[in-house]
Each structure stands twice: as C-alpha cells, then as structure tokens.
C-alpha cells in the first residue's frame, strides 16, 4: 500500500504515518491495545499475514494464517476500550469491522483481549458478538 494513501483503519492519518510504520518491522510497536487493534485491522486490509502472526500472543498464535483474497475490509468502528494504555498489562477492544466479498457484505463484531509483554502489545483472542 502506498504510504501516502489514507490508512485503512480510518484514523484520518496516512498509512505511512499510522499503521504502516508498525507493519514495516522497524522495531516500532503499537503503544496501546487500541493502536494494535487498528494496525491488525489494517494488516488484514493490506494482506499482511506476517504482521498478524507477529502480533499474536505466543500462547494462542496459530501455526499459520491464510487470508482470504476475496474479502475486502471496508471500515473499522471502535465501540469501546477497557484499559490497554501504555501503563497497563491487559486491555480489551470491542470493534465492528465491515467487509465485502464478491457474494456479500458483512460485519465482524468482536470483543478482543490484548496483553502486554515487555514493551509490546499482543492480541490474545476474541469473542464474536
């Protein structure tokens, strides 16, 4: 994705100034659970399975992740957050992600749990709602 394009997470920033800086693997880590959630959504949108696996907690990370090329992620709405700040060790982010395929439009409503290990946030798991 072009660094000057609008970031898929809809933060209002460009991809390069927003989630793209985390996707590059330059050692920059998302500072909050919400920032990690947004960057993971953007990784789904741009097809970056490596980033998704790298930011998944080792305690629940799958061996591999196959992304569906037919899914086009359209919009991310953050519903609420609990904790997940720079001084917290855990956090929760509830979101709705809207998508489109060649056959349908849909949405994924999830409450995701995050944990911080050292200076990095990791996705643990989520419950679809």
TrEMBL record:
InterPro entries: NTF2-like_dom_sf, SEC_C_motif, YchJ-like, YchJ-like_M. SUPFAM superfamilies: NTF2-like. This is UPF0225 protein HGK34_20280. Pfam families: SEC-C, YchJ_M-like. Gene3D superfamilies: 3.10.450.50. It comes from the Bacteria. Residues 32-126 form the YchJ-like middle NTF2-like domain. Belongs to the UPF0225 family. Coiled coil: none annotated.
